[in-house]
Amino acid sequence: MKIGNIKIHGNLFLAPMADVTNPAFRMLCKKYGAALTYSEMISADAVLHENARTTSRGLSCEEEKPFAIQLFGNSATTISDAASIVEEKYAPDIIDINLGCPAKVLVKDGSGSALLEFPEKIRDIISSVYGKVSVPVTAKIRVLRDMRETLEIAKIIEEAGASAITVHGRTQAQQYAGKAEHKYAKNIKNELSISVIANGDIVDGYSAKQIIDYTECDALMIGRAAMSNPHVFRDISHFLRTGEQINTDECSQRIADFKEYMRLLELYGLEEHVDIRMHAQWFTRGIKGGRHVRQEISKTLDKKSIIQLMDSLCTQFSEKNENSNFHGN
Ligand SMILES: Cc1cc2nc3c(=O)[nH]c(=O)nc-3n(C[C@H](O)[C@H](O)[C@H](O)COP(=O)(O)O)c2cc1C
Which of 44, 58, 117, 195 is deepest in the core (most CB within 10 A)? Predict the structure, then answer.
């Protein structure tokens, strides 16, 4: 598929996630087949004021390409000025505008999902960014309860020059509650000619297949499922190709991925920007015995101890399996 003039080899994208999708995490997902990766959202104001934190967020490398930088803000001038700086400084392939974040701090400031109440402001923002940068511009929205109003916003985004739109099928008020409603992405895909990306609750091959078949969208964007298991990109793409699930030892896979993640953090000099304990805890989500290990991880800051604790998780689990096999025989 293509977004503007950017060729993208695959249809599974890594969602932008604040405090998660740093360059090291994105590279890990790329290795497992994420066709397009997004930076954490970056404040347009912070870009203009050269806030140091934006540097680690915007950073990328040649192997990651194509990648997108996501910006948020509340004014067309600020966002388009920031887009122009970001384009020159970090050379992203795509610039994405956040029109969906429901966090109070953004909404109070008139950014993120607060903009969904002001369609003409959205038009101004997208068209100003489109006029300022040479890379494709995209937008990521949440839905409104009203289908017609949601479709109107999507059309405005297309008319203003965007090359793609991502639709997270939840409203601002829902935050992360309930199930994502993909009928919005389906109808937007039906009405628009730009690429449409469906997002929300894609966790495995089955959900991915169901959502892509139902919406007929160009791509799927995966967030929380990748947070604890970057391997999910390989699992899903295998399922979409063959209809079969990959049979891996999930525990050792996750721990190996965490170790690789630590190596990449070190390689990119990002260790001090990341809360290692929090990331270690995500990587153990859904693993048997994980709760106890997460409690222990929360008590230490030492990298070696964290890795030992995670290693012990797989050993305990495989010992338990061996024991239960023994009793079964
Ligand atoms: C920890 C976290 C941080 C997020 N940060 C962003 C962000 O920076 N920009 C954005 O557009 N969405 C952000 N989101 C929303 C995700 O991109 C995605 O839309 C949402 O999680 C639904 O997809 P999922 O069900 O696959 O997780 C964030 C979500 C999570 C869980």
Answer: 44
